[in-house]
Every structure is written in C-alpha cells, then in structure tokens.
Design brief:
- With 208 residues, this protein is α+β, with helices and mostly antiparallel strands.
- It is built from four helices and eight strands, in the order αβαββββαββαβ.
- The protein has one domain.
- Strands 1, 2, 3, 4, 5, 6, 7 and 8 form an eight-stranded antiparallel β-sheet that branches.
- Helix 1 crosses helix 3 and helix 3 crosses helix 4.
- The radius of gyration is 24 Å and the shape is elongated.
- The N terminus is likely disordered.
Amino acid sequence: MKFYEIGRSMVEMLGVLAIIGVLSVGAIAGYSKAMFKYKSNKQAEQLSTIISAVSRYQNDLRLNDGSTDTFQLIPLLKKLHEIPEDMFVKNNESELRDVFNSKYLVYHHVTGYIGILSYLQNDDSSLEVCRNIYSVAKEFHADVSDVRIIITQNDNTGSQPSTRYGDKNCHSGRKCLRDMTVTETDELCRVCDGSKYCILYIMFGIIS
C-alpha cells in the first residue's frame, strides 16, 4: 500500500470516529430528554393517585374525636391501597417520595383540614415537579380548597407569594385554580428558584 493511501485511510477513519462521536452525543441527549419526560409523567401519575384518594375519602379521613394532634394519613391510605407502592420510604410510613425524590406528607390538621405537602428540592427537577403539582391539582379544582407555595427562610420565617383557590373558595376577586394558565404556573413556580426551602401545599376542607 502506498503512503498516501495509508494517510487517506487514517483520515477516513478519523472521519468515521467523528461521526460516531456526534451520533453518540445526540443519542445521549435524546435519552436524557426521554428519561426526564418519563419521570415527569410518572410523577404526575403518582400525585394524581394521592389527590384522587384524598378527594374521595376526605370526609372519612377527618378526625371527629376532638383530637388536638396532627394525624398522619399515609399509613391509613396505605391500608386502603391508595398509595403507589414505589412512593413509600423504607421504614417510614409517614413520608412518601416521588420519582424525582421530592418528599410528600399527607395529614389531618388539628384545625380540621387535610393537607398534602410537597417539599420542592432546589435542583433541576424542582420546576417540573412544581408544574406537575399545579397541573394535577387543577384537575381537582372542585374538591381542592386551595394550592399555595410557602417559601421558608433560614430563620424559619415564611412567606406565601401565591395562592390559587378551588371552586368553593374562589370568590371576592380571588384567583381561581381552574383558570390557571401555563404561563401563570411557570411564574408561580419560579418563585422557588434559589430558595433553600420551598413547600407546596394542597389543601382540602377549608371553606373561607
């Protein structure tokens, strides 16, 4: 084989390797995007199951014995087979984790309402998790009392920059959950950007 033919073969090989490299990068990016979409759909499905269960059982889940304690409802919902199995935290029957590892609590408060809490993580998934929570809660606007974000500071003080109300509480100029747009959802969720603690509440049973 002549020298220039060897050189041409090397250039062709390098060209093939470059093409393979470009295709590999594209495949990895496509896989990452597809995986994130899968996890987003899964998280919405997990939350929808919980909200649906609380909506159906909220009257039965309320304590009517004059108790002064907050009552964790996850163990009870588990016995009713209303919690996705893949959300349970090992050795902890009062805490759930979604596919993004965001923490959830479901409880009956001493004042009579039922709450679903989601602790948004300060990472790349928090915006999508927040969007899903509002989107799923919106489907239950007739049952949900309100949805709100509370940003907790390091000194344990908090603020509530947004609240969207369910049908029974949507009056007197309040912003209705059922009317939320995608743009409004993104604006609300972005208030959590950079915050250390951002908690999203879904409330049931509050008439105001």
